[in-house]
Specification:
The protein is mainly β. The chain is built from no helices and eight strands. Strands 1, 2, 6, 7 and 8 form a five-stranded antiparallel β-sheet that branches. Strands 3-4-5 form a three-stranded antiparallel β-sheet, with no helix packed on it. The relative contact order is 0.21.
Length: 123
Protein backbone atom coordinates (compact mmCIF):
# COMPACT_ATOMS: atom_id res chain seq x y z
CA UNK A 1 0.00 0.00 0.00
CA UNK A 2 1.29 3.45 -0.94
CA UNK A 3 1.41 5.94 1.97
CA UNK A 4 -0.87 8.93 1.67
CA UNK A 5 1.11 12.03 0.67
CA UNK A 6 -1.67 14.58 0.41
CA UNK A 7 -3.28 16.13 3.49
CA UNK A 8 -6.83 15.12 4.36
CA UNK A 9 -9.65 17.15 2.87
CA UNK A 10 -10.34 20.43 4.63
CA UNK A 11 -13.77 21.11 3.16
CA UNK A 12 -15.45 20.87 6.61
CA UNK A 13 -12.95 22.93 8.62
CA UNK A 14 -15.06 26.11 8.65
CA UNK A 15 -18.30 24.45 9.73
CA UNK A 16 -19.24 24.88 13.38
CA UNK A 17 -21.96 22.52 14.50
CA UNK A 18 -22.71 21.63 18.11
CA UNK A 19 -21.60 18.11 17.24
CA UNK A 20 -18.01 19.37 17.14
CA UNK A 21 -17.97 19.23 20.92
CA UNK A 22 -18.36 15.46 20.90
CA UNK A 23 -14.80 14.54 20.20
CA UNK A 24 -12.91 16.85 17.89
CA UNK A 25 -9.33 16.98 18.98
CA UNK A 26 -7.24 20.11 19.05
CA UNK A 27 -7.81 23.55 20.49
CA UNK A 28 -11.02 25.45 20.21
CA UNK A 29 -12.03 28.94 21.17
CA UNK A 30 -15.51 27.95 22.29
CA UNK A 31 -17.42 25.49 24.45
CA UNK A 32 -21.03 24.50 23.85
CA UNK A 33 -23.18 22.33 26.07
CA UNK A 34 -26.84 21.74 26.95
CA UNK A 35 -27.93 21.98 30.58
CA UNK A 36 -31.24 22.57 32.39
CA UNK A 37 -33.24 23.18 29.22
CA UNK A 38 -30.85 25.56 27.51
CA UNK A 39 -27.73 25.61 25.40
CA UNK A 40 -24.81 27.51 26.88
CA UNK A 41 -22.13 28.81 24.53
CA UNK A 42 -18.93 30.38 25.83
CA UNK A 43 -16.49 31.94 23.38
CA UNK A 44 -12.98 33.13 24.25
CA UNK A 45 -12.65 36.56 22.63
CA UNK A 46 -9.76 38.36 24.32
CA UNK A 47 -8.81 41.75 22.91
CA UNK A 48 -12.32 42.78 21.89
CA UNK A 49 -14.51 45.39 23.56
CA UNK A 50 -18.18 44.55 24.17
CA UNK A 51 -19.22 47.22 21.64
CA UNK A 52 -17.12 45.54 18.92
CA UNK A 53 -19.05 42.25 19.12
CA UNK A 54 -22.15 41.64 17.00
CA UNK A 55 -24.45 38.80 18.00
CA UNK A 56 -27.44 37.88 15.82
CA UNK A 57 -30.02 35.07 15.69
CA UNK A 58 -31.29 34.19 12.22
CA UNK A 59 -33.59 31.25 11.58
CA UNK A 60 -31.91 28.75 13.91
CA UNK A 61 -28.37 30.03 13.46
CA UNK A 62 -26.41 32.12 15.96
CA UNK A 63 -23.93 34.44 14.27
CA UNK A 64 -21.01 35.77 16.34
CA UNK A 65 -18.85 38.44 14.68
CA UNK A 66 -16.36 40.98 15.98
CA UNK A 67 -13.83 43.43 14.64
CA UNK A 68 -11.13 45.36 16.48
CA UNK A 69 -8.88 47.93 14.84
CA UNK A 70 -5.59 48.76 16.54
CA UNK A 71 -4.65 52.10 14.97
CA UNK A 72 -1.36 52.26 16.89
CA UNK A 73 -0.11 49.02 15.37
CA UNK A 74 -1.95 49.27 12.06
CA UNK A 75 -3.69 45.92 12.59
CA UNK A 76 -7.24 44.66 12.38
CA UNK A 77 -8.48 41.61 14.31
CA UNK A 78 -11.68 39.88 13.21
CA UNK A 79 -13.72 36.96 14.51
CA UNK A 80 -16.65 35.17 12.87
CA UNK A 81 -18.43 31.91 13.65
CA UNK A 82 -21.90 30.54 12.98
CA UNK A 83 -23.59 27.95 15.18
CA UNK A 84 -26.62 25.82 14.22
CA UNK A 85 -28.61 24.12 16.99
CA UNK A 86 -30.32 20.70 16.94
CA UNK A 87 -33.36 21.91 18.92
CA UNK A 88 -35.75 24.82 18.58
CA UNK A 89 -34.46 27.80 20.57
CA UNK A 90 -36.77 30.35 22.21
CA UNK A 91 -35.23 33.34 20.41
CA UNK A 92 -37.02 35.90 22.62
CA UNK A 93 -35.26 34.52 25.71
CA UNK A 94 -31.65 34.45 24.43
CA UNK A 95 -29.29 36.27 26.82
CA UNK A 96 -25.64 37.21 26.39
CA UNK A 97 -22.91 38.77 28.52
CA UNK A 98 -19.26 39.59 27.91
CA UNK A 99 -16.87 39.52 30.86
CA UNK A 100 -13.07 39.42 30.96
CA UNK A 101 -12.70 38.45 27.29
CA UNK A 102 -15.32 35.67 27.41
CA UNK A 103 -18.69 35.89 25.66
CA UNK A 104 -21.39 33.70 27.25
CA UNK A 105 -24.70 33.13 25.49
CA UNK A 106 -27.65 31.27 27.05
CA UNK A 107 -30.14 29.91 24.51
CA UNK A 108 -33.25 28.37 26.14
CA UNK A 109 -34.72 25.48 24.17
CA UNK A 110 -38.36 24.86 23.42
CA UNK A 111 -37.72 21.18 24.22
CA UNK A 112 -38.39 19.92 20.72
CA UNK A 113 -36.09 18.80 17.93
CA UNK A 114 -35.25 21.32 15.25
CA UNK A 115 -37.74 21.56 12.45
CA UNK A 116 -37.08 19.63 9.32
CA UNK A 117 -38.39 16.93 7.06
CA UNK A 118 -37.84 13.35 8.27
CA UNK A 119 -35.95 11.14 5.83
CA UNK A 120 -36.79 7.45 5.62
CA UNK A 121 -33.81 5.14 5.84
CA UNK A 122 -33.90 2.21 3.45
CA UNK A 123 -32.37 -1.07 4.44
Amino acid sequence: MVPRTTPPSTWMQGLDFPSRIFGESGGSDYELYEEDGEFVLTVDMPGFEREEIDLAWDDGILNVAAEHVDDDRGRKKTYHRRFRFPKVVDEDEIEARYTNGVLEVALPTAGTAAQGKPIEIQG
